[in-house]
Amino acid sequence: MPNRNDEMQVIIDTYKNYWVGYHFSDSSWDCSLSEGKPTIAEIIGHLLYWDLNLITNAFPAVENNEGIVFPEFDSFNQSAYEYARSVTKDRLLDEFTSTRNELSQLLLNSSEIICKPTTTNGVSHCPDTGTPYSLIYIIQEFIDHDRHHKAQMDLIQGR
C-alpha cells in the first residue's frame, strides 16, 4: 500500500506535468468554443493566474494557519484573460510552465503544510465530497480543473 508521501508525490507530479507535451496550435490560439467563451490563450492565462494565486495567497495563508480566501472568480478570471491578450503566445506559455514548476516545487518541499486542514472562503470541507480542505486536496481539484480545460481545448483544436 502506498504511503501518504508517495500519494502526494503522484498528485504533485500529475499537476506539474499535466500540460507537458500538449501542442497549442497557432491557428487556434485565439479561438474559443463559442462567442463569449474564453480562447485557448485566455484559458492558459486563467490557469497561470490561479497557480500564481496559490503561490502568493493560498500557500502563505495555510502556512500561517489562516484560511484560504479565493478571489471573486469572475473579476479574477477577467483579469487573467486581459493579461493573456496582452502578451505573446510564447511568453504566456513560458510563464505558465515556469509558474507551474515553481508551485510544484513549493508543494514538494512542504509536505507538512500541504496536508494541514484549512478552510476555503470559510468552508472547511468540500461540499461535493465532504473531504476536509487542504492544499493537496485543492491541487487534486485543480487537476480536475485542468482536465476540464484540456477537454475544451481539444474541442477547439478539433481533437
Structure at a glance:
By secondary structure, the protein is mainly α.
Description:
With 159 residues, the protein is mostly helical. It has one domain (36-156). It is built from 6 helices and no strands. The longest helix has 24 residues, at 40-63. It is globular and about 45 Å long. The relative contact order is 0.19. The mean pLDDT is 95.
Per-chain topology:
Blueprint: H1 4-17, H2 40-63, H3 73-86, H4 89-108, H5 111-114, H6 135-156
Helix pairs in contact: 1-4, 1-6, 2-3, 2-4, 2-6
Task: Give me some keywords for this one.
159 residues; mainly alpha
Low-confidence segments, ≥5 residues, pLDDT <50? none
Counted beta strands: 0
Percent of residues in helices comes to: 55-70%
Number of helices: 6
Let me know the average pLDDT: 95
Percentage beta strand: under 5%
Main beta-sheet annotation: none
Q: In angstroms, what is the radius of gyration? A: 16 Å
How are helices and strands ordered from N to C? Answer: HHHHHH
The number of distinct structural domains comes to 1
Give the overall shape, derived from the CA principal axes.
globular
Distance between the termini: 37 Å
Structural class per helix/strand content? mainly alpha
